[in-house]
């Protein structure tokens, strides 16, 4: 028996030896929300639309979290909104009402899943083109650990991407951050309104780097809570 174990270990390539190690995020559940979707495109500049950027980055985050052993629940996985994916029979008379009910449905998904962490991913846009930099937000009226989570992700973005000095901030207007009863953070991945940053946000390699930074921040937060 002992010789068999030694033989298996010897034959295993170094890249495969994680098979014998515990997954760093095993047992953790995380809900990832790609902001906007469907008729609600979010911010835009020319052909660049926020809902497409948020979904692309969210999917990269999902992939990386799963590799680390986490259970990941996505509020949406397609171009449509969350209602399209989870309550397609529902009809609304106005886009405003649909957007409101779509946000409520995202909250319901978090309440149903009861994850360790909830992350909603967005991209920013304002009239002035000079502003740039990813920034993470939390709600002081939400879960007490939201601030720690947001700061962990913000620090990871600053360290890994090295293109922003922004700090995590509290924000009052975001319904989801306040209402979900789990640690929650909103990641504004950059400014579509800034020419340079817009080019980065649609670049797959940069989206992957952003996803790496978000995941590292989530992992740092969760592992610190375990310790």
Explain the overall architecture:
The chain has 227 residues and is of the alpha/beta class. Helices cover 45% and strands 16% of the residues. The protein has eight helices and eight strands, in the order H-E-E-E-H-E-H-H-E-E-H-E-H-E-H-H. The protein has helices at residues 2-11, 50-67, 82-86, 95-113, 146-161, 175-179, 195-201, 204-226; strands spanning 29-34, 44-45, 48-49, 71-74, 117-124, 135-138, 169-170, 184-191. A hairpin with a 2-residue loop joins strand 2 and strand 3 (48-49). Helix 5 crosses helix 8 (204-226). The longest helix is centred in the C-terminal third of the chain and has 23 residues, at 204-226. Residues 1-15 have low confidence and may be disordered. This is N-acetylmuramoyl-L-alanine amidase. Keywords: Hydrolase. Its EC number is 3.5.1.28.
Topology, please?
Blueprint: H1 2-11, E1 29-34, E2 44-45, E3 48-49, H2 50-67, E4 71-74, H3 82-86, H4 95-113, E5 117-124, E6 135-138, H5 146-161, E7 169-170, H6 175-179, E8 184-191, H7 195-201, H8 204-226
Parallel strand pairs: 1-4, 1-5, 5-8, 6-7
Antiparallel strand pairs: 2-3, 6-8
EC number: 3.5.1.28
Protein name: N-acetylmuramoyl-L-alanine amidase
Organism: Lysinibacillus parviboronicapiens
């Amino acid at each position: 028996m002992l010789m068999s174990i030694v033989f298996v270990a010897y034959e295993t390539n170094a890249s495969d030896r994680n098979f014998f190690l515990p997954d760093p995020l095993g047992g953790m559940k995380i809900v990832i929300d790609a902001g906007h979707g469907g008729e609600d495109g979010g911010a835009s500049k020319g052909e660049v639309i926020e809902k497409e950027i948020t979904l692309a980055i969210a999917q990269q985050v999902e992939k990386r979290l799963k590799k680390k052993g986490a259970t990941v629940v996505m509020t949406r996985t397609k171009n449509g909104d969350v209602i399209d994916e989870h309550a397609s029979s529902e009809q609304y008379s106005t886009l405003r009402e649909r957007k409101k009910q779509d946000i409520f449905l995202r909250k319901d998904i978090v309440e149903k899943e009861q994850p360790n962490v909830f992350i909603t991913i967005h991209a920013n846009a304002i009239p002035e083109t000079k502003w740039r930099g990813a920034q993470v937000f939390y709600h002081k009226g939400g879960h007490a650990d939201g601030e720690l989570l947001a700061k962990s992700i913000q620090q990871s973005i600053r360290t890994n991407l090295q293109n922003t000095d922004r700090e995590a901030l509290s924000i009052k207007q975001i319904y989801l951050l306040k209402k979900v009863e789990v640690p929650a953070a909103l990641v504004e991945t950059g400014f579509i309104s800034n020419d340079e940053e817009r080019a980065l946000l649609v670049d797959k390699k940069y989206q992957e780097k952003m996803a790496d930074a978000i995941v590292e921040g989530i992992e740092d937060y969760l592992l610190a809570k375990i310790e």
